[in-house]
Design a protein that fits this description.
943 residues, six-stranded mixed sheet
């Protein structure tokens, strides 16, 4: 289900002093930066289809989106989850397209496609090279007009959706958001039913239901088409007329949900006890008005003050000051009808839900009882403005924004009007809406507690008063069958390709050894700054797992002149956030600002990077939060299988230890350990400042010299990887997690370092194996058998040889079967050359992913930062496509034979062992079984 995420990215809209002492607390500037409106054209065809076009000739791509005004709210009685199930079926056959041909038309040419189902809509979206636009318009029109529904695809996709359902429940707290939140939030409106549905309802669906649903809702007068990117407007209109205009508009009326959720006037309180819950959680929900309501902008600002960033009220009070919660967040979900505002906390270890409830209620009450400060108000407006700018960085982002405006608000400019209204919000407005919508008697409370013997809790389900209606099939539904091969209309050929303009990299070096890397992009007034350094978790001493990760996280938790609160306040008052973290081979400090505010932002970045304090109280706070986070991960079959796989494959070598540490190792870390970890990584001679966006190389060097030119390292530089020890022998390990909702499956083995000459052949081989929807693994596991929501593989090539791993999640009884399928596909790649046609499609996946990465400032900065950490020449940015396309079938086969052979792979399955162990043991009699509670990630032996 899609949610509107309001990211906190650093933005300043007024000039600040170049330097700020810890004592100086600037009044946050009122937002004044103007966001350019999204230029678009609009027309409506005779059949009712509304068409929106957003032209952007700076990109070589085009985004195509079709949104239907139907979602989870429209699920028929007894068929919850039906709109979502139908979404899956739209990727199958049409009269002229064979199953999965949408993937051939998108992924196989370097694009991608996906879809999502919300409560109010179902959307289908693609990004493809611009010369393939006509082909996608043909395909979208064909599946709107002539979807084929047949038993095999129907059964397979229903099984896939069941696995998606189980995957959600297998995660800790999955039920909390997937089913319980909507169920406690609505008493009448069909929003009460989770979009994913449930297994019983999915099983009750029939093919006739599917055909009736398509005939009822998938019609041109219930849809919008949005095209954004590089196209010729006249040609676009011609193609739309050619493919969409002939689709007939049915005569019948479209059924609409007309029921209105009544205001909640009495509080609701429920308590549940759930398995696989490492820490208690508590959630409070209130009703929100429809998204078009005039009160929504004030509520948006309230939410930003409540939960955006580490200067937010929830983080400051529950997580930081009182240390009650491991995390505290909100879900601001406005809809066409009544929405929900959820405030929730996952408690810290040893803290109970009652304390969390009291704290959450206290923070909500503050909005009702007292006015927010001018500083809070300005900060929130800047944060909302920044998020709006970031959403407009790509053609796809603009298309999503416009389409959502039309479906939810029936107004393509609704978001621009909301942004303007946000700037007019006052403290009095926020207090008024808090009193109007967030009273205690209007709340719905859910306590989500760990399973306890003898405790049953409340039954939470869809209220019997929720209004639904049966699906009434339109008369004379045409049953579509695939056209005979000789009569099938083929997609038109692609046009001449649009040549992409790749970013140009400029580099210089300061006297202290710091590299300064710049990429100019002047289309938006944004700059991403990323200071990266070589070192990272691979340098952690034995027994000190997590030292580099914890050390990196603490860099923003206080410097010698600024406290953690002052850093958060200084950054977030500008509208954003600053982040620092570590990887296996390096670390980084990152932020994004408007270009006119880069200088004051660099003051904070430089202070964080060069003067971290590692105060004792901050160490203890971060240690506790990290241990709680690890406890949650250890209850997730997918996450735990990945952690165990790294340990099994690498043993006690550097890449084998958990990046964030273990509860045992974290408890042993001292202040001296964390300072040493910092000094191993943060040396100017092994660091680079990457600046991408609205800045020139000359200005970048001036800024770098001003803020980082006097930086001198005090420790020893990170050790260069030396001799690479032999890897442990392969193992087969089962981690028994009784009653786990799914099994996490990983087949993994040692790979290569990034500087290995076989990197590109292996990267292509890995993409053939498990990169993308059309990969061999996904074909075998999901598409052909419906055993998982998805199956993939990944290549981690670092300064040392990294992991090559294939992974998925599946229902417990099919875990052994999935292991066999994965192993067979890995072996097959080394036995025969990949056909040239298949090879070209997988190369296109890599090239397309690369192209979309370099469309944003933070994407380019992240890519260049990786090059720095892995000692890759920066001109790789220009040579990447040629290197990928230069790999031939023989090179892929050779790389696969040497580096994907499953005989050298370890197998890890985390799940309910009693449901799959006999079958797995029959094939692998040497299998080791470790109870989940006994897994010791501090040792390569797991014991």
């Amino acid at each position: 289900m899609m949610r509107c995420l309001r990211a906190a990215l650093l933005l300043s809209v007024a000039t600040l002093p170049a330097t700020l002492s810890a004592q100086e607390q600037p009044q946050p500037p009122a937002a004044s930066a103007r966001i350019p409106s999204i230029p678009f054209t609009e027309r409506t065809l005779a059949n009712g289809l509304r068409v929106y076009a957003i032209r952007d000739t700076t990109t070589p791509n085009v985004a195509v989106q079709v949104w239907y005004d139907v979602g989870g709210r429209d699920d028929p009685r007894g068929r919850s989850g039906f709109a979502h199930l139908f979404e899956h079926l739209m990727f199958k056959a049409t009269r002229n397209l064979v199953p999965e041909q949408m993937d051939r038309l998108t992924e196989d040419v370097g694009g991608y496609n996906n879809a999502s189902t919300g409560d109010d809509y179902t959307n289908y979206f693609e990004v493809i090279p611009a010369n393939h636009l006509q082909r996608l318009l043909f395909a979208e029109a064909d599946r709107m007009a002539s979807l084929v529904v047949e038993p095999t695809s129907f059964a397979s996709e229903r099984d896939v959706v069941k696995e998606e359902y189980r995957q959600g429940f297998a995660r800790p707290y999955g039920k909390l958001f997937q089913t319980y939140l909507p169920e406690i939030s609505y008493s009448v409106h069909p929003y009460a039913r989770g979009v994913i549905g449930d297994v019983a309802n999915l099983d009750s669906a029939t093919i006739d239901d599917v055909r009736a649903f398509h005939a009822t809702y998938y019609r041109p007068d219930n849809a919008i088409l949005v095209v954004a990117g590089n196209f010729d407007p006249a040609q676009l209109n011609s193609w739309v007329d050619q493919y969409f205009a002939p689709i007939k508009r049915p005569a019948g009326e479209i059924p609409r949900v007309t029921v209105t959720e009544p205001p909640r006037e009495r509080p609701v309180s429920r308590t549940v006890y759930e398995a696989n819950t490492p820490l208690p959680a508590v959630l409070l929900s209130w009703q929100l008005p429809p998204d078009r309501d005039a009160d929504v902008p004030a509520l948006q600002v309230l939410d930003a003050i409540m939960a955006t960033g580490e200067n937010s009220r929830l983080y400051r009070s529950l997580v930081y000051r009182d240390e009650l919660a491991q995390s505290a967040q909100t879900s601001f979900d406005t809809r066409a009808g009544t929405g929900t505002y959820a405030v929730f906390a996952i408690m810290a270890g040893g803290k109970d839900a009652a304390a969390g409830e009291a704290a959450l209620r206290r923070e909500v009450a503050r909005f009702r009882d007292e006015a927010v400060t001018p500083a809070e108000l300005a900060e929130a407006k800047n944060e909302i403005l920044t998020a709006a700018i970031k959403r407009r960085e790509t053609a796809e982002g603009k298309a999503f924004l416009l389409a959502q405006n039309v479906i939810i608000n029936d107004d393509p400019t609704a978001s621009e009007k909301q942004l303007a209204a946000v700037q007019r919000v006052t403290a009095a407005d926020i207090q008024r809406v808090a009193r109007k919508y967030l009273a205690d008697n209007q709340s719905a409370l859910l306590r989500y507690l760990p399973e306890q013997t003898g405790k049953t809790g409340d039954t939470v389900t869809v209220a019997p008063t929720v209004v639904t209606r049966p699906l009434t099939a339109p008369a004379d539904i045409a049953i579509v069958t695939p056209a005979p091969a000789g009569q099938r209309m083929l997609p038109p050929p692609p046009a001449a390709p649009v040549k992409p303009v790749l970013p140009q990299v400029a580099e210089t070096r300061l006297a202290n050894g710091l590299r300064v890397i710049t990429v100019e992009r002047h289309d938006l007034p944004l700059v991403t700054a990323s200071l990266v350094a070589v070192g990272g978790a691979a340098t952690d001493p034995a027994g000190k797992a997590g030292a580099s990760s914890l050390s990196a996280g603490l860099m923003t938790m206080g410097t010698t002149t600024r406290s953690a609160a002052e850093i958060a306040r200084a950054v977030e008052s500008l509208g954003g956030s600053i982040g620092s973290d570590a990887s296996r081979d390096g670390a980084s400090v990152d932020l994004t600002v408007t270009s006119d505010q880069l200088a004051p932002a660099m003051t904070i970045l430089a202070d964080v990077a060069t003067h971290p304090a590692f105060a004792a109280e901050e160490i203890e706070r971060a240690r506790t939060q990290t241990i709680d986070g690890v406890a949650v991960a250890m209850k997730n079959p997918a996450q735990l299988s990945g952690l165990v796989a790294s340990r099994v494959v690498f043993g006690n070598q550097p890449y084998g230890t958990p990046l964030e540490g273990t509860p045992t190792s974290l408890k042993t870390l001292t202040q001296a350990d964390l300072k040493a970890a910092y000094q191993r990584t943060w040396q100017p001679g092994q660091a680079a400042l990457v600046l991408v966006g609205d800045i020139t190389p000359a200005a970048a060097r001036t800024l770098a010299k001003r803020y980082l030119g006097t930086w001198q390292g005090k420790g020893t530089t990170a050790a260069v990887p030396g001799d690479r020890a032999a890897f442990p022998a392969p193992r087969v390990v089962v981690v028994d997690m009784p009653d786990a909702g799914q099994a996490g499956v990983v087949v993994a083995r040692p790979g290569i370092a990034r500087d290995d000459a076989r990197y590109y052949p292996l990267a292509v081989a890995n993409t053939v194996l498990g990169g993308g929807f059309s990969s061999r693994l996904n074909q075998e596991v999901r598409i052909k058998r419906g055993l998982a929501y998805g199956a993939s593989s990944g290549l981690q090539a670092g300064r040392r040889p990294g992991l090559v791993a294939a992974r998925t999640q599946t229902k417990n009884p099919s875990a052994a079967e999935v292991v066999t399928l994965i192993s067979a596909e890995m072996e097959k790649l080394g036995k025969a050359p990949v056909p040239q046609g298949e090879l070209a499609t997988r190369q296109a996946v890599l090239v397309g992913n690369f192209g979309r990465t370099v469309e944003t400032t933070d994407g380019i900065a992240g890519l260049l930062g990786d090059y720095v950490v892995q000692s890759v020449p920066l001109d790789e940015l220009q040579r990447y496509t040629a290197k990928v396309e230069g790999v031939d079938p023989a090179a892929v086969q050779a790389a696969a034979a040497a580096l994907l052979d499953p005989k050298a792979a370890s197998i890890v399955v985390v799940g309910d062992a009693r449901q799959f162990l006999p079958a797995l043991k029959a094939r692998y009699p040497q299998v080791e079984v470790v109870p989940a509670a006994a897994v010791n990630l501090d040792s390569g032996s797991l014991k």
